[in-house]
C-alpha cells in the first residue's frame, strides 16, 4: 500500500458521515457529522483558550501600569472570558451544523416546559453580569449577605464565593448580592463606626459609666483615636439605663473580637467601681394572697 493510499484511507475515516445534523423533517439541508467536523469544532475551542490566555496576560500588564484596582480588573477579565468562550461555543456549534434557530427554539420550548423553575437561575445569571459590569462588589471586598460576613474570593456568572470569618468558603447566589439588602463594608471612603450596647442599674452614676466606657475603648489598639469613641445615653429601659458606645475602627473582618475585648474591659472596670449590670426582672402582684394560703 502506497503512502498516498494510506492518506486517502485516513481521510475517508475522518470524513465518514456518521449521522445527519439539522435540516428539515425530510432531512433536506442537513449536515453529516464527521470526525473532521468534530476536530474543527475542538480546534475552535482550543484557539479561543489560547487567545484568552494571551489577552489575560496583556490586560493584566495593562491594568498594572494603569494601577487599576484588582477587583475591577478581575471583573473585566471575567467578562472578557465569558464573551470569548460564548463566541467560541457558538462557532463550534455552527461548524457542526447546529443552527442557532434550532438552539433558540429548543431553549424557548425548555422555558415553557420548566416554567418558573429557571426563574431564579436566570436571575442569578443576570445579577452576575451586573456585578461584573458595575463593580458594586469586587474580589477582596468584605460584605455581609444572608447574615454572613466574609471576604469575596471569587465572582462567578451565577454564584460568588465568600470566605466567612470562620474560614469556610460559602457559595452565595449573585441575586443575594444585587437584589437583597447586602452590605459592602469595603466601599466607603470614611472610617466605619460600630456600636457596643450596655445596660446599667438605675442607681449607677451615669457620668462614671460614660467615663468607663470611653476608657475601655480608648485603650484598645484597634480602635481609632480619630474620630474619638463617644457614648450615647440611649434610653431609660425597663430594668436598666441603656447606653451605646460608638467606636471607629478599620478592622472590618475581625471587629467582633475587638468588641469582645472591649466588653471584657468594661466588665472589669464595672466590677472595680461597683457598677451593676442588671438582668430583666418582673414583679408579680397577687390580689388575694390570704385565699391562696388557705387553699394551699
Overall number of structural domains: 3
Number of E strands:
10
Overall radius of gyration: 33 Å
Overall pLDDT level: 79
β-strand percent reads 15-25%
User: How many helix segments?
Assistant: 9
Helix and strand composition category: alpha+beta
The description of the largest β-sheet is: 5 strands, antiparallel
Instruction: Please give the share of residues in helix.
Output: 40-55%
Strand order of the largest sheet: 6-5-4-3-7
Q: What is the H/E order?
A: HEEHHHHEEEEHEEHEEHH
Low-confidence stretches: none
Gap from first CA to last CA: 116 Å
Task: Summarize, please.
The chain is α+β, with helices and mostly antiparallel strands and 296 residues long. The protein folds into three domains: 11-98, no CATH class; 139-184, SH3 type barrels (Roll); 192-272, Alpha-Beta Plaits (2-Layer Sandwich).
What does this 3D model show about the protein?
With 296 residues, the protein is of the alpha+beta class. The chain folds into three domains: 11-98, no CATH class; 139-184, SH3 type barrels, CATH 2.30.30.60; 192-272, 2-Layer Sandwich (Alpha-Beta Plaits), CATH 3.30.70.100. Helices cover 49% and strands 19% of the residues. It has a five-stranded antiparallel β-sheet with strand order 6-5-4-3-7. A three-stranded antiparallel β-sheet has the order 8-10-9, covered by helices on one side. Helix 2 runs antiparallel to helix 3 (70-95) and helix 7 (206-218) crosses helix 8 (255-272). The model has no long low-confidence stretch (mean pLDDT 79).
Amino acid at each position: 500500500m502506497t503512502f498516498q493510499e494510506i492518506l486517502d484511507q485516513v481521510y475517508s475515516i475522518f470524513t465518514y458521515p456518521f449521522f445527519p445534523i439539522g435540516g428539515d423533517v425530510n432531512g433536506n439541508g442537513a449536515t453529516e457529522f464527521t470526525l473532521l467536523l468534530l476536530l474543527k469544532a475542538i480546534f475552535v475551542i482550543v484557539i479561543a483558550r489560547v487567545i484568552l490566555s494571551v489577552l489575560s496576560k496583556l490586560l493584566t500588564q495593562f491594568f498594572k501600569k494603569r494601577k487599576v484596582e484588582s477587583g475591577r480588573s478581575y471583573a473585566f477579565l471575567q467578562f472578557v472570558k465569558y464573551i470569548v468562550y460564548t463566541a467560541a461555543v457558538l462557532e463550534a456549534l455552527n461548524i457542526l451544523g447546529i443552527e442557532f434557530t434550532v438552539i433558540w427554539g429548543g431553549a424557548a420550548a425548555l422555558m415553557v416546559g420548566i416554567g418558573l423553575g429557571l426563574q431564579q437561575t436566570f436571575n442569578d445569571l443576570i445579577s452576575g453580569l451586573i456585578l461584573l459590569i458595575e463593580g458594586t462588589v469586587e474580589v477582596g471586598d468584605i460584605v455581609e449577605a444572608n447574615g454572613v460576613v466574609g471576604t469575596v474570593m471569587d465572582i462567578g456568572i451565577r454564584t460568588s464565593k465568600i470566605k466567612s470569618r470562620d474560614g469556610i468558603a460559602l457559595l452565595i447566589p449573585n441575586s443575594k448580592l444585587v437584589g437583597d439588602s447586602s452590605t459592602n463594608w469595603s466601599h466607603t471612603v470614611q472610617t466605619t463606626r460600630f456600636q457596643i450596647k450596655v445596660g446599667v442599674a438605675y442607681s449607677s452614676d451615669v457620668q462614671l459609666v460614660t467615663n468607663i466606657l470611653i476608657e475601655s475603648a480608648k485603650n484598645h489598639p484597634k480602635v481609632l483615636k480619630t474620630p474619638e469613641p463617644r457614648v450615647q445615653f440611649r434610653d431609660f429601659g425597663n430594668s436598666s439605663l441603656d447606653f451605646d458606645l460608638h467606636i471607629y475602627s478599620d478592622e472590618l473582618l475581625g471587629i467582633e473580637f475587638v468588641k469582645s475585648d472591649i466588653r471584657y474591659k468594661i466588665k472589669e472596670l464595672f466590677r472595680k467601681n461597683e457598677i451593676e449590670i442588671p438582668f430583666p426582672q418582673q414583679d408579680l402582684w397577687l390580689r388575694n394572697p390570704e385565699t391562696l394560703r388557705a387553699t394551699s
